[in-house]
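Batch job 17 of 40 flagged for manual review because the log was empty.
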Amino acid sequence: MILVFCVVLVALIFEYINGFHDTANSIATVVSTKVLKPREAILLAAVSNLIGALWGTAVATTIGKGLVDTQFVTLQTIICALVGAIIWGLLTWWFGLPSSSSHALIGGLSGATLASAHENWSVIRWSYFNPITHNMEGLWPKVIVPMVISPIVGMIGGFLLMGLLLLLLRRQTPRHVNAVFNKLQLASASLMAISHGTNDAQKTMGIIALSLYTATQAGMFRELPDWMSFLVSTKFEVHIWIKVVCAMTMAAGTAAGGWRIIRTLGHKMVKLQPIHGFAAETVAALVIQIASHWGIPLSTTHIISTSIMGVGATKRFSAVKWGIVERMIWAWVLTLPITALMGYWCLKFLHLIQLAP
């Protein structure tokens, strides 16, 4: 029973870190364009993240039961997955690199489950057809392919939308354009934050739901008092209380801010005006909403970063500081394998000291 609460606590710590690590995704542009002051932007992001986190469960279902064989998932497996994701999130936050919390969690879960199954690679659900949803599921179609395609879509979409806006507004004065997009960027930043909550908060919801299902199957709740019966999950299900707790935790983390990453996205990569921020946020939010509808645990970091690159490239190709972009890409590429190794060796260590079956 204590182990169950430890898993939920660690999951919420990850959610909190996700909140302040990924705050920059939704507010970096609105801060850098000076449409909002930092504290105002963080408040906007926290409230919008809270709204988005309560919206849907498709991504939570993918994380909880669509990527690995749940028969080999124990509570120790989940803790090790979360530990790997948390360490990577803190490291990339410290160095100001906008890496993916989503991919960190997925990598940690894959590596820890592989260790739990004693290197039986079949426990990783690479690709399979789901007869219920009539869609392809698994690590390849839901994670790896979108990981490659979504940044490209973000960059091209940002470039095209920005180009279209410049064409339509070519006869307007910069002062008029800034006045209009100062207001419009409030809407695009809110939509981006809602999209972030819709996709990112659901990952921890899926992990907590998986933990409760695993504990129920293992018989840990047999002597549970009636007032704690809400913990029992005879099937994988994201209960409303899980949604509320995760949503509030992410909002609290968002309120803490993530200034290092905000500086990277909003200031170091390319200089932005309100119209650029609007274009980048709108494209990123639309891509994330589509992905969330299909249960794809997308990296909001990848999308907004490449959208900013695409928007910045409309000024001139050299306007984007490609040296910083290169560092970010390395962080993206390394996230899945490094967190998988962290989750794997964490569980192996627990096996060694006989704290895991």
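Reviewer: the log was empty due to a logging misconfiguration, but the result itself is present. The mean pLDDT is 85. Unflagging and moving on to job 18.
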